[in-house]
Amino acid sequence: MKFFKTIVFTCLLVFAALVHSTPPSFDDDLRRFASSDSVGYSVLISQNGKVVYKEARGLANIELNVPMKSHHIFEIGSLTKQFTAVAILLLAQDGVLSLEDNISKYIPSISTTKSDVTLRHLLSHTSGLVDPINDPEFLETRIQENVSLDALISQFKNGRWQHVAGEQMHYSNVGYSMLALVIEKVSGLDYKTFLNTRIFEPLDMHNTSKASFNLTSGKVTGYTFDGNDPWQHDFVNLNWAYGAADLLSTTEDLSLFTHALMQGKVLNKEHLHSFLSPVLLNDGAQRQGSFTYSLSPAWNVDAISTSGSTLGYSSHSIYLPNSNTFVVVLSNSDGVNGGSWIPPATVAGKLTTTLLAVPIPDYKYVPIPDISASRFIGNYEMDKNTLRKLSFDKGHYFYQRNDGPIYPVIPMGENSFYFKDTLSHFKINKPGTAKRSMDFYNFLNSEPDNALLVVRK
Is the separation of the CB atoms in 253 and 195 below 8 Å? Predict the structure, then answer.
């Protein structure tokens, strides 16, 4: 199956130019999202393994006024999962396990009840295992407790299987902790040693390691937000995210890994293809994601991306396979409490649009007279399961999808609106008529989702 399309010629010219010069617009992008006196961002863009842009902005420690530097180390959250998945595939490549092995082969006392669960199911988040690690209540009451890997899995291996394996995707951190246990049992090495021996040391990733309670030289302080005010996150025991979100790294190390992986220097062709192929469900439906990556295009260009976060840290990376280009953004802040946090995905996305030289809106406020609100508001139906609602109250517009959270949206033209600190926006066609519709541009998609006004009779 041919997974990647051919990139347009104009984009190739842009990438070629990058090798010779650093467009100042990358600096503009970073300044747009990061101030010099608050939480920071470390960004890197590389092509064919060579760094074409590397910069840091903001503070590594706000209290001590320590500037962020490109060599600083961050918790990378769920970017950890790609390393766990690669470790399992290395063991499959070695012939000492199969992705079709039942998990009960490695955790004998497990009871999945719904169906047989394989390593492939755990890798693709289709096992049916549901865990509470990201639930607000768990984060408030349990995340500070000490826990071993065996104890973690014992707590969640039974009674947490919500659907037949392969029936649907349901994100699970504990599923990746189970995979970490499999790595240890099969290899005879602990998770940390296996990654060091097979991945980090061979690739000269000297600043990547498993998080611990030991002090790590060069690691930045993590912050969350209370409204607009940053404050240090509470103590977190990353053993709860064993194999799922417990690694530390830098932008340069992540670049080394990604280029080596994508060029077949870590996994052979067969297992790399398995890693990057879209997930298939039992009914044959194909998901727009592989084991750990999203496979959604970036402005009609093939892209492989992933995000991560822990309490106080967040990350996002985008790999463009047709030009062997990698964009990564690490931040020492999170979105747990909302506030002034700007997702690294937004920063990485904007850098990517600059890289591709594609046209995007200015995302600047353009006032619309309040009297015009009735021309835009209404419920717009995309399909039988998706209703996009645009409302207006006290001089402000609000957006809601189905019964989900309500977000303020900002007018940026006669009939266009955007979400603050994101690259998502929408346009109302034929405003003021019963035939109006909404074109919704999600993140880096060049083609909008269209929704039609629901006219109540």
Answer: no
* 139-142: long-range pairs with CB below 8 Å, 24+: 139/311, 139/336, 142/240
Structure confidence by residue, pLDDT tens digits, 264-300: 999 999 999 999 999 999 999 999 899 999 999 888 8
Residue 38 makes CB contacts below 8 A (sequence gap 6+) with: 58, 59, 62, 230, 340
DSSP symbols for 382-439: EETTEEEEEEEETTEEEEEETTS-EEEEEEBSSSEEEETTSS-EEEEESTTSTT-EEE
**How many Å apart are CA 378 and CA 151, to the nearest integer?**
51
Token pair 């070695």 is found at 94
Taking the C-alpha atoms of residue 420 and residue 410, their distance in angstroms, rounded to an integer, is 7
Alpha carbon separation from 304 to 211, 294, 310 (Å, rounded): 25, 6, 21
pLDDT above 50 (res 5): no
Give Cβ neighbours of residue 450 (< 8 Å, ≥ 6 apart): 382, 437, 438, 439, 440
Highest mean pLDDT among 25-34, 79-88, 412-421: 79-88
**Which token pair is 365?**
């406020």
266: amino acid identity, one letter: V
Whether the Cβ atoms of residue 76 and residue 207 lie closer than 8 Å to each other: no
Q: Report if pTM > 0.85.
A: yes
Q: Quick: pLDDT tens for 34-93.
A: 989 999 999 999 999 999 999 999 999 999 999 999 999 999 999 999 999 999 999 999
Amino acid at 152: L
Token pair belonging to 203:
């690739």
More confident residue, 233 or 51: 51
Q: End-to-end distance of the chain based on CA atoms, in angstroms?
A: 48
